[in-house]
Amino acid sequence: MLSCSGINKSFGALAVVRDFSLDVPAGERHAIIGPNGAGKTTLFNLINGVLRADAGTIHLDNKDVTRLPPERRARLGLSRSFQRNSCFPDMTVAENLATAVVLSWRLEWRPAPSIRRFPAVHERVEVIAASVGILDWLEMPARSLSYGTQRQLEVGLSLAGEPRVLLLDEPTAGMSPEETKRIQALIEALPRSLTIVIIEHDMDVVFGLADRVTVLDAGAVLMRGTPQEVRTSAAVQARYLGEAPA
């Protein structure tokens, strides 16, 4: 469903992503981990088109999207959440979700005065809100939500375009343990028709969610394997987890 081959990206003399390749089959939950500065977010920027790779190719469902801008990749089924919440703070949860739905449907529409005037949009908003656990907050301004609930909204915005591949960039960053559990459960409940690639620092979340894990080190793949293989890898222990395996 998602294939990267020989991806390279440098900023001046600094090589940030080096000869990165990855094949993610449909329905897989694939985690990308590595220390700060390993190139994880830059990699996501390359996959979704915010940055252009210096070399290599990116395919989405066997379609070459290497030179397509982000909006074209989104139309083909690629969606992404960001490390920082990107909702409209003064709009309600419903208006935020409705705006994302309208953009994905290419409708001529504005969020005032009420989405109830647009039954199809309203129905889709309620479905998304229910899927990410924020149905009870539809009429609340986004800025009044807790940080964790805003992250749930962020995932909802990513789902509005009905993607086939979802990139989640640090979905539990800055969360309390209880909020982290809630987001992890939300991601686990997403249908297997959706392919997910997740960047995450919380190893409990990674090992609980991922089918496979890629470990980045200085922009290159250190290893790739199942959570158990990564957990017990001497190389990963030494370079990333910071201790020798038992």
Question: What can you tell me about this protein's structure?
Answer:
This protein is an alpha/beta fold. Helix content is 35%, strand content 24%. The strands form 2 sheets. It has a 6-stranded mixed beta sheet, with helices on both faces. A 4-stranded antiparallel beta sheet has the order 2-1-4-5, with helices on one face. Strand 7, helix 6 and strand 8 form a beta-alpha-beta unit. Helix 3 packs across helix 4 and helix 3 packs parallel to helix 5. The longest helix has 13 residues. The protein is globular. The relative contact order is 0.18. The model has no long low-confidence stretch (mean pLDDT 91).
How many H/I helical runs? 9
Low-confidence stretches: none
**Gyration radius, in Å:** 18 Å
Q: How far apart are the termini?
A: 36 Å
Beta-strand level of the residues, as a percent range?
A: 15-25%
Annotation, overall tally of beta strands: 10
Provide a compact summary of the structure.
The chain is an alpha/beta fold. 35% of the residues lie in helices and 24% in strands.
Topology:
Elements: E1 2-11, E2 14-24, E3 29-33, H1 40-47, E4 55-60, E5 63-64, H2 70-75, E6 78-81, H3 93-105, H4 119-131, H5 147-159, E7 165-169, H6 177-189, E8 195-199, H7 203-209, E9 212-217, E10 220-225, H8 227-231, H9 234-241
Parallel strand pairs: 3-8, 3-9, 6-7, 7-8
Antiparallel strand pairs: 1-2, 1-4, 4-5, 9-10
Helix pairs in contact: 3-4, 3-5, 5-6
